[in-house]
Design a protein that fits this description.
about 500 residues, about 45% helix
């Protein structure tokens, strides 16, 4: 008899081979760490932004292939849904007027893409979740026709063995089921990359985990899904539930979800790749011909394709990245907690806050993760996702007395974290005017208690109070959001109302 074929189409021998290759890759990765063969730091940062396509009425347009043909740039790529695009910015050195340079590049590139999209009857929208999306939009027929998306959908659904269940309770409650992972396409985010050495990785990753709640509290921009007002950053629970490979009984037993915050501070990047192997079965058990031990024995650098592929299907909010460029391996921390938008100014303010805080916290002689229990960091993240800029966060008290205090996120940022972020950006070598301009936006958000999510929610309630029904109110909010976003002015300056 032939090898047994499991329900997702991969036979058991393929899974066994893949598991063996994963172990070999992890061993080879350990050798690279021990031998110190990684690239030295160049203070490089990278930026990716996921985008939506919407028409003049604020409704999603399923036409990324047509828009990409018009744009004609490799900087723009497909994403999961046909109403999604992604723009990738070439790595920049964290120094000088880096944020000013990024602003110019982004405004030029996104402006060009927006004009090309308009030729197809669409426009570019930077937002965490497009408020006008409906059940009919997020179906498998609207997934981008790319093999990896189809395979990923098939594998997740086969692993679950049942429909995706969405159940999110916030200001209102949303319950839905889906026959595919298409709801994940509603989540459009910003990914921030920072290249680090192996010796520095654990400090930077731990710092990234600690500040994730602060990032979300300041930058939340996803309060609506399927016409319901949910969390201020509804993208987080939506992504978790839409990619969940666990059937209900495994979830109830405490099996870890593939999208997760984590459960402990780490001592090495090796810890994360080891957890990937230990806790998560393979979604895409595809083996490469590379023999990593032979490559090492010949003095080369293995690409470790199985380790990279498997890591790409574990959706940590701060993810380790291994890559080889020009024959030299390097490591990056990929920070994935932020939603897209509302404007380039807002995105870069969020970016400056992250890189500044991570540098300061990673440099501290008595690091925050030695004083903040991991469970508290996880609870902070949940609170920030639910309540946004109105969240209260637990943080170590300053000074020698120690202990923890629970304080409003806006006050924590204004009084303690903004000075730390400024010091961190100065340590990177970012010019004073550049860092003050970006962090000044964060300060004003705190002072006015306004970010993308709070603006959307307030505009929605004004529209409903004026007599519009739910659907028309959300459409009006989306149109006004797009209109104001095109001015380029940061969201805290926007006039209220739709």
């Amino acid at each position: 008899m032939g090898e047994k074929v499991v329900s997702d189409g991969f036979d058991l021998s393929a899974r066994h081979r893949y598991r063996r290759k994963l172990k070999e890759c992890l061993e080879a990765f350990g050798v690279l760490l021990d031998e110190g063969r990684f690239e030295r730091p160049r203070n490089l940062m990278g930026l990716e932004i996921e985008l939506n396509l919407a028409d003049a009425d604020g409704m999603p347009r399923m036409m990324n292939a047509e828009v990409l043909r018009r744009i004609g740039s490799k900087d723009f790529q497909t994403e999961l849904g046909q109403f999604n695009l992604e723009v990738n910015i070439v790595p920049h050195r964290l120094a000088g007027r880096v944020f000013d340079q990024l602003a110019e590049e982004l405004r030029t590139g996104l402006g060009y893409a927006d004009r090309q999209a308009m030729e197809e009857g669409a426009g570019i929208v930077m937002i965490g979740i497009l408020p006008t999306l409906t059940d009919e939009d997020l179906v498998s027929s609207n997934l981008t026709d790319v093999d990896r998306y189809t395979l990923l959908n098939d594998q997740i659904m086969a692993s679950r063995g049942e429909e995706v269940v969405l159940d999110i309770e916030g200001v209102e409650r949303l319950t839905r089921t889906s026959a595919s992972i298409a709801p994940e396409a509603a989540c459009t985010s910003v990914q921030l990359h920072l290249q680090v050495t192996p010796e520095r990785f654990a400090d930077v990753w731990n710092a990234s985990q600690a500040v994730s709640a602060v990032q979300v509290a300041m930058g939340a921009n996803s309060p609506f899904l399927f016409g319901r007002e949910l969390w201020r950053e509804s993208r987080i629970p939506l992504f978790l539930q839409a990619t969940d490979t666990r059937p209900a009984e495994l979830s109830a037993q405490g099996v870890r979800p593939r999208t997760w915050f984590g459960e402990r501070w780490i001592g090495s990047v090796y810890d994360l790749f080891e957890e990937n192997l230990r806790y998560f079965p393979s979604l895409l058990p595809i083996c490469d011909d590379e023999d990593p031990h032979r490559v090492l024995g010949d003095g080369g650098i293995p690409a470790l394709p199985e380790l990279v592929l498997h890591n790409g299907t574990v959706y940590r909010w701060n993810r380790p990245v291994y890559a080889v460029t020009g024959g030299v391996p390097h490591l990056r921390v990929e920070n994935r907690v932020l939603p897209a938008g509302p404007t380039v100014a807002d995105v870069l303010a969020n970016t400056a806050l992250y890189y500044g805080l991570v540098r300061s916290l990673a440099d501290e002689p008595r690091p925050v993760w030695s004083r903040l229990p991991f469970a508290a960091a996880s609870a902070n993240f949940d609170a920030a996702c639910r309540h946004g800029i109105e969240a209260e966060l637990t943080w170590p008290r300053a000074g020698r007395t120690g202990g923890l205090a629970t304080v409003p996120a806006a006050r924590l940022v204004q009084e303690e974290l903004l000075p730390m972020a400024a010091a961190g950006l100065e340590a990177w070598g970012v010019e004073k005017g550049d860092r003050e301009r970006c962090l000044g936006i964060i300060e004003e958000r705190c002072r006015r208690r306004v970010n993308g999510a709070s603006w959307q929610a307030a505009a929605y309630h004004r529209a409903v109070d004026s007599g519009l029904d739910r659907e028309k109110a959300l459409a009006a909010v989306t149109r006004r959001y797009c209109e104001l976003a095109r001015t380029g002015e940061p969201v805290h300056t926007w006039p209220p109302g739709a």
